[in-house]
Fold this sequence. Notes:
Blueprint: E1 3-4, H1 6-11, E2 17-21, H2 25-30, E3 37-38, H3 41-44, E4 56-60, H4 65-76, E5 81-84, H5 87-95, H6 100-111, H7 115-128, E6 137-142, H8 146-161, E7 167-174, H9 179-192, E8 196-200, H10 203-207, H11 214-232, E9 237-239, H12 244-258, E10 267-269, E11 277-279, H13 287-296, H14 307-312, H15 322-336, H16 340-347, E12 358-361, E13 364-367
Parallel strand pairs: 1-5, 2-3, 2-4, 4-5, 6-7, 6-9, 7-8, 9-11
Antiparallel strand pairs: 10-11, 12-13
Helix pairs in contact: 5-9, 12-15, 12-16
Amino acid sequence: MDMITVEQLSAMDKKDYIVIDIRDRGAFAYGGIPDSVNIPASALMDNFDSIPRDKCVVLCCKDGSMSSGYASILRRQGYNAVAVKDGYYAWILSRIQNDPLRAKEVERSINKKFHKGIWSRFTAAINDYDLIQEGDKIAVCISGGKDSMLMAKLFQELKRHNKFPFEVEYLVMDPGYNSYNREIIRRNAKMLGIPITVFESDIFESVVHIDSSPCYICARMRRGYLYSKAKELGCNKIALGHHYDDVIETVLMGMLYGGQVQTMMPKLHSTNFEGMELIRPMYLIREREIKHWRDYNDLYFLQCACKFTDDCSRDQPEITSKRQEIKELIRSMSKTNPQVESNIFRSVENVNLSTVIGYKKDGVRHTFLEDY
C-alpha cells in the first residue's frame, strides 16, 4: 500500500503507526494531524535513525504530492512507509462538519469566553478609530484564514446588535486557488453560516513567475480587485483582517528592513478608487486570542493559499519570510521585557517631531533644518 486515506488512518490503532509531517516548520506550527511529529522534507534524509522501523511510517505533506515520493524512498530503505492521500488538505476537509449547531457554538464563544479578548477589542477599534458610520456598505474581505473568518463572524454579531443601520457583503476573491483551498473556504463558510460572494481573478498566474517582490505585487493587485468588486456591489468600504500583531510587525519591519518609520493604519482612503475606504476593525485584537478562538472551537482554516509558495516549496521547503523573522525577534525580546509589544504599538502614536531629523507628508520631504 503506497497511500492511505485520512479515514483509514483514523481507523488504525495509534500504537501501530507514527505520522511524520514533512512540511516546513512554519506550516506545521500553524496546524497538523494530532500527535504527528515534524521533520521537514529537507531534513528527512538526515534523520533516518530517528524514524522507527517497528511501526508504519505515515508521511504527510500539504497535498500528498511530496510525501508520496519520500514514502517511496523510505520503503527502499526497508521502512513500512505510506503517504496520506491528498495530505493535510484531506485532513482539514475531514474535520469540517456541516453541523447547523456549530455556527451557534462559535457565536456563543465570541459573546462569552472571548468577549474581553476579542469582541470588546473589536468594538473598541470601531469606536476609537471611527471605522463605521450610518449608511455604510462594507465588503468584508475573506481570504479563508483564521483572521478573516473571525472578522466575518464579528461583523455578523455587530449587525445583530448595531445601533445604526449599515450593510455588509462577505466577499471572497479566488485569485487562482487550487481546488482544495477553494473547497475549504466554501465548507467553512457554510458551516459558520457566512453567506459569501465569490469572484475570480488570475492574480496568481500573473505573479507566480515574478522573481522580485512577488508578494508585494500580489498584495497590491489583490487589493485593487477587491476595491473594484466591492464598488461594483455598491460598497463604500472594504474591511481587512489585519490584527494587532500585524501592526507591530509592520512597524518593526519598516525600521529594520526599510529604514523608515511607518505603521499599518486602522483606516485609509483609496488613492485609485474615489470614495472608497479601507478599514481594519481587528486592529486591537491579539493574534494569540484569534488562535485560541480557532482552537477552542476546533476550527480548521487555510494557512497560506499562495500558488507562489505552493510551487517553490518543492525546492525550498524552509522558506523563512522577513515577517517570520520579526515575529521571532519580538517574541525573544518579550521574554525579558513584557512591554515590548505595547511599546512598539504606541511608538507611532507618540512621535515627537522636535526630535525627528526628517519626515514626509503628502509625498513632500521635510527636514528639521526648516524650523531650526
